[in-house]
Specification:
six-stranded parallel β-sheet, elongated, Rossmann fold, 17 helices, alpha/beta, 470 residues, 6 strands
Length: 470
């Protein structure tokens, strides 16, 4: 077979793979088609990998097969054993490993002449190598910090180092300067790893000042970075499939990042550099709002409320994930439905620690998709709701967000679930501690709010027991 025909067939296979990627992304846009979309994307990647391996005239497949077996074993083990509550951490690691792979492959191409263009190192090759190393290193180390925050290995609160903005700018400019030197002298391999080292420190310093509740934005942004790093590596290797897939991931991540920022009514620079959550309300500030107004309740009283309710809405938050209370939530939902109560779930776009976190947890316990309602639809129905049960949510239901004229309010203007408009609000929470924004929540002291101070899983289980006994 001629070289020209072989290349044409390879490019055709890459076009088919790219089409499968696009169809996969389209499928992932809706829960009902998500599984099919995931399979289409996986099929496209399998096709691209097989074609690439056959096209590159690889001498021995032993190491590749060994890597495949080891990676498959690790992936299968994670898929079976990982808890859905730990999914944000896993996604953060996936992003990081993607960035690390891009940086390592680009570095290997710089050293190995067989991976370089036939005519020698070109400007495109060297520039793409620098970008792959820089973006890949930022992605890897930034993702590790995000993982540490989500896993509780380091504090979730913003860590605000003195002069961090100046230091970050210096590291960025230094990385670019070293990259420019490498473009001019690509034979100086040490420059590449110096770029990677500076970018690694930059990745740590960029993410560590961001609070844990801003992780939905951070994870989607790091996902975009991993795609951009992969696309840059595609230019290094002159591989069209890698360029296309990386570009799709990069674009999808940026779009999702923008949607997450809009859901919080905050700009991306504010999320990355604002340090929201570093300052927590004082005991006196909380006392001014809560003193003598908070009404505690019990599972038995909540069960009595639910007995007379016709419409109940659950509002899940990160506290539900931490307590692993999604199963108890499902049990209460099923019991209420069996009693003829209309039950729905109001989902805030940034509730949890990754995009769609609450949707994932509720899907795990087989809550029907049509029971999950978005912010606007939920807000229109709260005035007709008898009981709202807030399970571990805080800032996404804080009415202070409506005060857009207070410059000291970190959530001013953020769209919230307006649960305070319901007839009765039951908030399940361990204490009156503030959310990630560090401010008190007047909802807890509202006339129509009852506070059930307990672990979410135990509280819901006790409510179910009380309902069954009534």
């Amino acid at each position: 077979m001629s070289e020209t025909l072989t290349q044409a067939l390879v490019n055709l296979a890459y076009v088919i793979a790219a089409s499968l990627f696009i169809l996969g992304l389209k499928g992932l846009s809706h829960p009902r088609t998500a599984v099919r979309g995931n399979l289409l994307g996986a099929a496209g990647m399998l096709l691209a990998v097989v074609v690439t391996l056959l096209d590159r005239h690889i001498i021995g497949f032993e190491l590749i097969l060994a890597g495949f077996v080891i990676g498959a074993a690790i992936g299968a083990t994670l898929a079976v054993r990982i808890q859905m509550t730990a999914m944000p951490q896993l996604v953060a690691l996936f992003n990081g490993f993607g960035g690390a792979a891009s940086a390592v492959v680009a570095g290997a191409a710089l050293i190995d002449p067989t991976l370089q263009p036939s005519g020698g190192i070109t400007l495109q090759f060297s520039v793409a190598t620098v970008l792959s190393g820089l973006i890949g290193a930022v992605t890897f180390w930034g993702s590790l910090v995000a993982f540490g925050k989500l896993q509780g290995l380091i504090t979730e609160k913003p860590v605000l180092l003195p002069g961090r903005h100046v230091l970050n700018l210096a590291l960025l400019l230094g990385s670019l300067a070293l990259g420019a030197l490498l473009v001019g002298a690509p034979q100086e391999f040490w420059l590449y790893w110096t770029v990677v080292a500076a970018a690694s420190l930059l990745g740590v310093l960029l993410v560590i000042p961001i609070g844990g509740a801003d992780m939905p934005v951070v994870i989607s942004l790091l996902n975009s970075y991993s795609g951009l790093a992969a696309a840059a590596t595609g230019f290094v290797l002159s591989n069209n499939a890698l360029i296309i897939s990386g570009s799709l991931v990069g674009a999808a991540g940026l779009i999702l990042t923008n949607l997450m920022c809009k859901a919080m009514n905050r700009s991306l620079p504010n999320v990355l550099f604002g340090g929201v959550g570093a300052v927590v309300a004082t005991a006196q500030e909380q006392e001014d709002i809560y003193a003598g107004k908070v009404k505690a309740t019990s599972p038995e009283e909540v069960a009595m409320l639910l007995e007379g309710a016709r419409r109940v809405v659950f509002v899940p938050g990160y506290g539900m994930a931490v307590a692993q209370a999604q199963y108890a939530t499902r049990d209460l939902y099923q019991l209420l439905e069996a009693k003829g109560v209309e039950v729905e779930f109001a989902i805030h776009p940034v509730a949890g620690r990754m995009p769609g976190h609450m949707n994932v947890l509720l899907a795990e316990v087989d809550i029907p998709y049509d029971k999950l309602k978005g912010l606007e639809e939920s807000n229109s129905l709260f005035p007709q709701t008898d009981v709202v049960i807030v399970v571990g949510a805080n800032d996404v239901v804080n009415p202070v967000a409506r005060d857009v004229n207070d410059p000291s309010n970190p959530i001013a203007g953020m769209p919230i679930l307006e649960v305070d408009k319901a007839k009765t609000v039951v908030v399940i929470k361990r204490s009156l501690s503030p959310g990630f924004a560090g401010i008190p929540n007047p909802l807890f002291a509202a006339d129509n709010t009852l506070m059930l101070f307990a672990d979410a899983k135990k509280a819901l289980t006790d409510i179910v027991a009380a309902l069954k006994e009534s």
